[in-house]
Automatic annotation (TrEMBL):
Its EC number is 2.7.7.65. Signal peptide: none annotated. InterPro entries: CheY-like_superfamily, Diguanylate_Cyclase, GGDEF_dom, Nucleotide_cyclase, Rev_trsase/Diguanyl_cyclase, Sig_transdc_resp-reg_receiver. It catalyses: 2 GTP = 3',3'-c-di-GMP + 2 diphosphate. It comes from Vogesella oryzagri. Keywords: Nucleotidyltransferase, Phosphoprotein, Transferase. Residues 229-345 form the Response regulatory domain. This is diguanylate cyclase.
Amino acid sequence: MPVSQTLVSLAQEMDHTGQQLLLRWDPELVRRFTALSQCLQGLAEQAGAEPLQRANEELAAMLRNWSKRRHGNDDVLALRQHLSLVTQLASLPLPSFTPPGVGTVQQSHRLFLLVPPAQLPAPALLEQLACFGYVLDVFDNAQTLQQALFLHEPGALIVYDEFDTDSVAPLAAMPACPLLFTSPRRDFAARLQAVRAGGQGFLGWPLSVRELLDTLTLPLTPDRRNPLRVLLVEDMSSLAGLYAAVLNRHGMVTEEITRPSQTLEAIERFRPDLILMDMYMPECDGQALARIIRQQRLMDGIPIIFLTMEKRPHMQLDALALGVDGYLTKPVSSEELVVTVSTRASRYRQLRSYISTDSLTGLLNHSHLFARLEYEFARAQRERRPLSMVMLDLDHFKQVNDSYGHQAGDEVLVSLSRFLRERLRRSDLIGRYGGEEFAIVLPGMGAEQATRLLDDLRDAFARLEQVSPRGRFRQTFSAGLCSSDGVWDVVALVQRADSMLYQAKAAGRNCVVSWSPPRE
Ligand SMILES: Nc1nc2c(ncn2[C@@H]2O[C@H](COP(=O)(O)OP(=O)(O)OP(=O)(O)O)[C@@H](O)[C@H]2O)c(=O)[nH]1
């Protein structure tokens, strides 16, 4: 299982806050540290990272007692070592949850399918799924399925149903994993029955790999490696801390600000999925602040929820007219807070991803890739870190469309996108540049390392067998690469990577060419 970026960034923020505390003891910093530590503890618990949990608990205990007594150099050293230990443990790979006997497949990549014996899926489906690292276990009766569910928890359970009776035959026990239905029927009545039976997704039958993978990548369950981010604007820091603790306990990451004037800067830096704000604050009230936020084009869509004691309907309606998304009337119960915040924030995140991604592959679209590239490039220059840009193009792709059909061509595009997503880091940017051309941005990676990585990817992808109804084939790609070293703007970076791609094609395709400065 890859390293959890969330745990790493939480641990890094804790380390930063802890170092600040050693310089200046400040109750606000202590509270922030405690909230981060609670959040890390919750996530580490869910991930089963026991050594990290223990180290984090010890660190929290050290800090709890810190202000109560005097400290020598040894104490400071011990605290620093503990901070660094937590950071190191957070960057270790998370333990696999694979139950005994299931082999080495990631549990989330093991799927159970319940179908009648007459409908067993074609072996090609299992093979195609295997190309993306998924294993499909097929059961032709509910009893053996229940036994298997008792022993293992798959990433999802898919149940075939023709919905020809009034209601779906209930499962002996509802699985803990997401439940999907698949059916030759796609009408409203069938979908209604599926939803009533607890279905979280609905797939056509016969199963299509693309539809299945698309559904599995939707947030059916909370994404614990990329938790929802909530910005709290509340002048009473104790109250904000209370809300933050509740949201943190439910896996969300929070940032608290007490002054409305800090809001715009905090939104840019923290990139929240939702803003929870007090309606009455001394510097500026919530309504004026909401208006300011809504006037910024890039911040316009972020959901805003007011926290208020206000019960007068006309005041609430005025705020709704401003584009505020809802109200929570104080005192707010933990349950109401968590449900209101998490549903709205995840919906916003999903809608945002539709706008910024290409509909076929789910990768960043051209304009968003470039917006993000500009940001990463500027950051790399500022931090004096390398960054590599890759332009990648499928070879002789026209022949694939001509020989196997446009649908098979589409499947190859999806296959490459998933392949890149599985193999690259979460911090890398992958975009569909257009047609059969892709762009990849590798922050922190210089030309040599990036060339090696791309060449490994090229080799592995070329070995994958593409399966289509008209036959099997293999697909290669060519790539051009340029690192930011000595390059002063994004346009030059892209042009150089592009001209290297051209050279890779000219050199016979199925290869990676990296830009190097011309000899003097
Ligand atoms: N199936 C499918 N095909 C696409 C899509 N976008 C572009 N194409 C096809 O990609 C092919 C690109 O063809 P060419 O530009 O001639 O390049 P090529 O055949 O890949 O050859 P080289 O790049 O020189 O190796 C065209 O046939 C396009 O129709 C898409 O979204 N789906």
